[in-house]
Amino acid sequence: MNRYFRELSVLVALVVALLGLAVLAPAFFQPQPLLSLVTREAPTLIVACGMALVIITRQIDISVGSQFSVCSVCAGLLAARGWPLVAVLPVSIGAGALLGAINGVLVAGMRLPSIVVTLATMVTLRQGLNLVRQGEFVNLPDNVQWFGLSQSSGQWTLVVAALVFLVALGLALRHVAVGRWIYAVGTDAEAARLAGLKPQLITFAVFVFLGGLTGLAAIMNLVQSPQIQPMVGAGLELKVIAAVVVGGVAISGGRGNLWGGFVGLLLLTCVSPALTHLHIEAYWEKAIQGAIILLAVVADGIRQKRSKN
Amino acid sequence: MRRWGLRGARNDKIGSLIRVHPCNPWLFYFLMRSSSPQHTGWKAIVFRHETLLAVVLVVEWLLFYHYGTTTNRRGVIVGFGTFDRQFDILRHSCEIGLLALALTPVILTAGIDLSVGSLLGLCAILFGKFWHDAGLSIPIAAVLTLVCGALAGGLNASLITTLRLPPLIVTLGTYSLFRGLAEAITHGAVTYTDFPESFLFIGQERWLGLPTQAWVFIIISGAMWLLVHRMTFGRSFRAIGFSPEGSRYAGLPVERRVALVYTLAGVIAAVAALIYTARLGQAKADAGTGYELFAITAVVLGGTSIFGGRGSITGTLLGVAAIAVLKSGLATLPVVMRMNAAEEMSGLLTGALLLLALTGSVLPKMLSTLRTR
């Protein structure tokens, strides 16, 4: 109970928000729109899992949005040329892992602060993509949509796949040695080194892993729409970081888990449709997202201060 | 000079040091500096980061002058080599320059502020709202905007100092919050225009031969230079960035100084917002999007360590100039003009430049540790 206090409090907030919506806007709970909403966020969940790992190692990656765009466009171009999805998937994951490796080398190898490195790669990738594509859309062939399945079975496939992945990774993080290493590095890199781990290598691997997951998420997003626009994924980094931080993963590293990140993501996902159903302008979304991030960190800060006293 | 707490950096001798109170941050800083080996004599001047950057800047300028200047069909010189273009560079670099000036003390204290670009947008909107919707006169609206900037910076400051939260995540939150508020206030569509001529004078006209906003920029950079390099007060920023615990033991009010730095950043972002509005003649919610990257790049390029404790205002100014010349120069190159991609190119190159500057700043250290191993 005490160990999961932070996650449970977010869960309570989510339940309260859902109950409030049930009273004020029952239209929110129609099954089909709800399924579409969850499907749309399935790729975000995958990226959020990777981001949680990066933040647990006391790093951050704000270039995931740009990585996502680059992977989407690459995968989209290949799919448009008639490549089967089975072949596109590894290419997309590989491209993402490569981009993650660039960040990883700069952060782990050269010991540069991750926030500035990924700020630079974020803009470089985004502008590079704009330069090459000039804002052009990629039209996808029909057989790519929903893996060639019907819409609802495609949606279920994505949601179930994302959830299975979440559970597997969440359990691995707690019960597999590699998962414990990640916490060890985030808690105290020097102590981890003295204990015989290689903190820089683990940090590097986590960045590559996040990149690969971003590539995977790009494919999961690809199958949902008939065309890929180059600005896809803009703002993804903020959403993912917000979800993870709201879910109780400490930005100072070594604390938090995927379950919290999952609940945090659900909470943030509810914001935008809830605004529509409550007849509030959609322009408030960004402000509310920012306020939720601040609220989460302030709550953490107050709790930490109190426990210190 | 002494009465103001102003003091020359290099001319001071140990003798005058002894008379200073031991808790004096300036003494602390001096001891900190003298503990690390430094170049002396001519090497100290030639191998300083600022000198190298100045050389790079001159080379960059000459390259653009050579490749970016052309004569059009009527035989008139157009492109980079014209006086108008040089004034344009000044005009366009003021906002990013101000943000970079605001970020220098922040980064010196080993912090970061990602929210300045969003705050610029929010302040521009608030100014438009004060003037247009509330019907206030321009000076009152401007003062209110500055107050709002200070309050927004104070929000960052209070969260960072009272709760000891990491600046990165706090300003990431306010980055989203400020931009979101700007969008919410304008419903994403409203643009404030029709500002009076007297206000647009700041952004579009010249005064005493220079673009008007350049004067504002010069005054603020002079003030910042005095603060950071010549006042004991401002020199403590570097001590704090170098070692916050050590500064606390040396008797510095670390929290108060850090709070001041973030509040100051908010005020300067508000000034930048006013200049931005005056230059474009309109206040939009997307004002200053992505400016934080350019500002951070300018600061890091200028030799300020992202880990805090080291850096200078002069370096930041040179960094701003390098980026401004790059941005403006690219737009005049025939290749880029043909591709119609000046915006993308400058963003791409700025990002790459930041990466280069970062790796360049740690490479010597890495090599030396490898050699000793």
TL;DR of this structure?
The complex is a heterodimer of chains A (309) and B (373). The mean pLDDT of chain A is 90. Helix content of chain A is 74%, strand content 1%.
Relevant terms:
heterodimer; A: 309 residues; mainly alpha; ABC transporter involved in vitamin B12 uptake, BtuC; two-stranded antiparallel sheet; 74% helix; B: 373 residues; two-stranded antiparallel ribbon; 17 helices; 4 strands
Report on this structure.
The complex is a heterodimer of chains A (309) and B (373). Chain A is built from twelve helices and two strands, in the order αααααβααααβααα. Chain A is mainly α. Chain A has one domain: ABC transporter involved in vitamin B12 uptake, BtuC, CATH 1.10.3470. The longest helix of chain A has 26 residues, at 31-56. Chain A is globular and about 60 Å long. The mean pLDDT of chain A is 90. Chain B is globular. Chain B has 17 helices and four strands. Chain B is mostly helical and 373 residues long. Chains A and B meet through helix 5, helix 10 and helix 12 of A and helix 8, helix 14 and helix 17 of B.
Q: If strands are numbered along the chain, what order do they take across the biggest sheet of chain A? A: 1-2
- Class of chain B, according to the CATH hierarchy? Mainly Alpha
Give helix and strand order of chain A, one letter per element, not per position: HHHHHEHHHHEHHH
CATH topology of chain B: ABC transporter involved in vitamin B12 uptake, BtuC
How does the major sheet of chain B shape up? 2 strands, antiparallel
Mean pLDDT of chain A comes to 90
CATH architecture of chain A: Orthogonal Bundle
Major interchain interface with per-chain residue totals: A-B, 47 and 48 residues
Q: Number of DSSP strands of chain B?
A: 4
So what's the CATH class of chain A? Mainly Alpha
H/I helix tally of chain A:
12
Strand order of the largest sheet of chain B: 1-2
Task: Please report which band the strand proportion of chain B falls in: under 5%, 5-15%, 15-25%, 25-35%, 35-45% or over 45%.
Answer: under 5%
Name the shape of chain A in a single word: globular
CATH T-level fold name of chain A: ABC transporter involved in vitamin B12 uptake, BtuC
Distance N to C terminus of chain B: 48 Å
CATH architecture of chain B: Orthogonal Bundle
Radius of gyration of chain A: 19 Å
Count of structural domains of chain A: 1
